[in-house]
Every structure is written in structure tokens, then in C-alpha cells.
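FIELD: query
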Amino acid sequence: MSSLNYPRLKAQFAAAQTKELKAHKQKVLTVGWSCDGKKLGSGSADQTARVWTNVERTSAKDALELKSHTGDVDQLCWDPTHPERLATASLDSSIIMWDLRAADKTKSAPFIRKVQTTGENINLCWSPDGRNIAVGDKDDVVAFIDTRGGGDARSEKKYIWHSIKSEVEINEICWNYAGDLFYMTTGQGTLRILEFPGFKPVTDLVAHTANLYCIDFDPKGKYFATGSADALICLWDIEDLTCLRTFGTLEWPVRTLSISYDGELIASGSEDRVIDIAAIETGERIHTIQCSAATNSIAWHPSKHLLAYANDDVSATRSEGNLRLFGTGDLRS
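FIELD: result
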């Protein structure tokens, strides 16, 4: 049973303002919060990532620029065990692990490690214990990287200790919160679940009737949600893998979704020019964020009803490259 006062939350969202952060020179492809919620990161087609430690300041000069990739930064993911570490995945066939404590704001931030992969990377996730990173590429290869190392500076590929080559399209990937199962969304509309670290197949869950793009887990451990090209979001019981309800308010393929810190709200974005926020328990629409373009990435704050999101905004001359914040939480901390 939900503990939220939905009428009150609807009123708060209706009165909330959207804050825009001037971020990149080209469109923003990915956004994410550090595990303590004090930092917001973004990755862009301009080949950089940026990190805000104070989102009250909206200028790009107030964000730390992470600049070492030579291709689009398609994915960004924070270490779930440490608020100063994050990883970025790029089309330049590399992933970079960064430590913000080593960053010098007067120059490009140094990184902990750069690992070359075999293909153009488009998906990324970090295991709950912080020991492994999984990265997926356009050739449907998922590589598993030991964040603690395994080689020296001349043998970076030793950090990759396992890889999976799929016969079907692989989209978003993730671990469950226990870290003992690994999930891969597929182009066949199925959710492939493997044991970890053994990689023994558990099941291929028939989840949707079209390409399955995205997945997110309820932080309370009850549900997970999947989004698909069939324009539906399905909410699943995490134990018995039954579909509890569907959310069908969007009209175009669901590109991205996020479940709030309290497991009460689900936000979803697509090629529709809206972001839908709904109640997990009832499916009731709580709020709609109007957008000027399709949505690339959304992420709830880890302790507030504060949503970061990025759209495909394009001006007459170039991509605007900005990201936005919407919600009820204090933006300062």
C-alpha cells in the first residue's frame, strides 16, 4: 500500500519549475546521479562527460569536464559503493573509470583507467558491490571488467575477464540489487536472465511484443520495470516474474525509464514529447513533463522526487546540449 499522498504530490509537481543546466556543445545522451545524490553526471555526443557538484549553478563552467574520449559518450554510470567514482562508455571502443578526487578543474580530469573494448559501446552498468562493470557494444558483445585490475598499463585487455557474444540484439543491461543475477534486454522483446558470476541461463522471459530497450529495478526490492518499442512499460514481480500491470500512456517506443528512490513512482520517456510520471502501485498518472523533443535519458535522485532528464533538443544551428531537472526536492543537497 502506498504511503504517498498522491493529490498532494500532484499539486507539488504542478507547481514545480524545470531548471535547465547548460551542459554540452551537442546533445546529451545520458544522465545519472552519484550514490549519495550530491553529484549529477552527463555524457554527450560532444565526446565529453560533465559532473555538477552544485546544480544550483546552471552554467557549463560550473561543471567539471571529463575529456578523454574520442567518440560519443553514450553511457555514464556511477560506482554504487563510492560517490566519487564513475565510468563512461563511448563509441570510441573504450570505457573510462574516473575518480573525481583526482580531478583538477584547471585541466582535463585524469582518469583511473581506460580499458579498450572490441566494439562501439552503447550500454554500461556497474555491479552492486562495485567490483565489476559490464559494457555492451553495437555488435551485441557484453564484456565484463574487473574494476580492481588484472594487468598492467600495457595489458589493459586483462581487465576484461569474460565476454558474451549474443546471437540477438542486446540493449540495456543491468544486475539485480543482490548482484547474483544479470539481466539483458533483447531485440526479440525478451529479457535474458543469467546467474552471476557463473553465467548459467536462468530464463528468457517473454516480456514484450517488440524490441525491449530499457529496464530498471525498484530500490525497495519488490519490482522491476521494462520498456519496449511496443510503447508499453511492464511492471514485474521480482520473485516470480509475473507481470503485475502495464503502463500505456506513451504512443512511441519507450527509450528510457526510472523508478524513484521510494519505489512509488515510475518516470518514462520516449519519442513522444512528454515524460510520463505514474504511480507504481496503481498506474495512475501523477504528472506529465512537456518536452520539446524525444527523451534520451532520465534518472531519479537517490533520495528525492527530483528527476534529471535529457532530450534530443536541436536549435536552428546545432544541438543545444542541455539537461534539465524537475521535481520537489531541494536542489542544493
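FIELD: remark
The chain is about 5% helix and 50% strand.
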